[in-house]
Amino acid sequence: MAIQVYDSLTRRLAPLVTRVPGRVSIYTCGVTPYDTSHVGHARPAVVWDVIRRHLRRRGYVVTFVQNFTDIDDKIIRRAEELGVPPASLADTYIQEYYQLLDRLEVMPADFTPRVTENMTDIIQYINALVSRKAAYEADGNVFFRVREDPEYGRLSGRRLDEMLEGVRVDVEPGKEYPGDFALWKKGRPGEPSWDSPWGPGRPGWHIECSAMSLRYLGEHFDMHGGGMDLIFPHHENERAQSRAYLGQEPVGFWVHNGLITRGGVKMSKSLKNGVTLAEILGRYPAHVVRTYLISVHYRSPLDFEERFIADWATGLERIERLWQEVKDAPSAREIVDAEWAAALVTFEDRLLDALDEDFNTARAFAEVFDMVKATYRGVESGHRVTAFGLARRNLTLANELLRFLPKEVEQTAADDWAEDLVKARNRARQQKNFALADSIRAVLIDRGYEVLDGPEGTRIRRVMRGGRSDGA
Questions:
Q1: pLDDT tens digit sequence for 34-68
Q2: Which residue intervals define the domain Cysteinyl-tRNA synthetase class Ia DALR in the entry (predicted)?
Q3: 289 lies in a domain?
């Protein structure tokens, strides 16, 4: 079946029909880099990574653009607090963001434009809106006339009069209507500014994405992504600007992911209830964090509690243990007429169908766990070679899309050192030197390993903080 995508504007699922057949153009709103990234920033990055992988698996050529708002009130205030230039502060946190996403196996974007590097295009865009009477200048500021857009509020499902009810709106000098929003902000002493037809200043938040998506993807692109917290005001305002500039809808599908919450409250830097991404990656392996973020459907909220991550890690261990058993297995050499065999043979179709259904990663993981169970049913029925061969193929395919297996490069020198100790401990036990064996065991435990003794010798597992083990 065709890929079905939920559009926030129409509030319904629809077949993915792209502007250019066989190609998908995507723009997503990136971070404002004024502080270290938290887990809430990682979720949309991982979600769009899976979406891109699936689209490419289905044969599409994907162009993916993710911007950085590298000049903003928050960046300026934070830079003042630290006594550093705003540009240096932003670049520092952008580089950290890249490093953290690399650990989560998020593919780099094709283009990562920054606001400060696209100022000419932004100013030209604003100037065109002023020329078309969709915007106006007032004392060095430029505002967008929201009442000129009859569709304003459709994306967020709000009426214009309702938007201002019970909300304190600071009416700036020269503003025609309290709900009009800034396209250009008059420069203030000591702050970064750029020359413009309206005097020195810098762009408002919303205009940036309209100008950069036009430059990098053209007048109409297929999918626009972001968190649900961006629907209003950011995407509502962006859509209004783009419609006024282009005279048409700029986007085929508005795609919004649910938010990371803690106790039902949105995780955010401003609320100071966030968990930094670096912090959680220091406590759990990257593949556990990555897959936990997509363990529910992308449009659903995800409550972030470490006990839930630990439970998820336990489930992943079943997949990892099977992979260790099948990764070197030969291909299947027989056709077996059995329910478990049919489940393994048709796994690819079911996995891709799950992701075709609005990128339903929760259903995709359910298919993976069911496939693991089917594999062991095949082993129990006496068809180990066939079951393991099909399971190797299936896990390889699924991992290409979901990335639930730890990267081989994460097997560090420390693991090699630990394996050498295991060999030494096995020799000590064979020689009945139990004092030495106990000493080695204590060292392994101290270095974060669980020691498992059995008839075939000692095995170890790295233990995650919180008592969960990370692989066999």
A1: 998 989 999 999 999 999 999 999 999 999 999 99
A2: 353-380
A3: no
Is the confidence at residue 469, as pLDDT, over 90?
no
Query: What is the per-residue pLDDT for 410?
Result: 36
Mean predicted confidence (pLDDT) in 321-349: 95
What distance in Å separates the CA atoms of residue 91 and residue 11, rounded to the nearest whole number?
37
Residue 285 lies in a domain: no
Q: How many CB atoms lie within 10 A of CB 372?
A: 17
Within this chain, do residues 85 and 188 fall inside the same structural domain, yes or no? yes
Q: Is the same domain home to 86 and 152? A: yes
Instruction: Extract the annotated binding site for Zn(2+).
Output: 29, 209, 234, 238
Peptide bond into 330 cis (omega under 30): no
Domain encompassing residue 265: 4-278
The verdict on 217 and 329 lying in the same domain is no
pLDDT in tens, 277-328: 999 999 999 999 999 999 999 999 999 888 899 999 999 999 999 999 999 9
Question: Do 186 and 225 have their domain in common?
Answer: yes
- Binding-site residues for ATP, in ranges, read 269
Instruction: Tell whether 354 and 376 lie within a shared domain.
Output: yes
The 10 Å CB-count burial string (b at 16+, else e) for 406-415 is beeeeeeeee
The residue among 189, 168, 188 whose CA lies nearest residue 178 is 168
Q: Which amino acids are annotated as binding site, given as ranges?
A: 29, 209, 234, 238, 269
Kindly state the tokens that stand for 24.
């998908």
pTM of the model: 0.85
- How many folded domains does the chain comprise? 3
Cis check for the bond before 233: say yes or no (omega within 30 of 0): yes
What is the spatial distance between Cα 295 and Cα 311, in angstroms, rounded to a whole number?
A: 12
Q: What length does the chain have? A: 472
What is the pLDDT averaged over residues 363-378? 98
Q: Are residues 444 and 392 in the same domain?
A: no
Regarding whether 378 and 453 lie in a shared domain, the answer is no
Residue 298 lies in a domain: no
Residue 193 phi, psi (nearest 5): -150, 160
Average pLDDT score over residue span 13-29 = 97
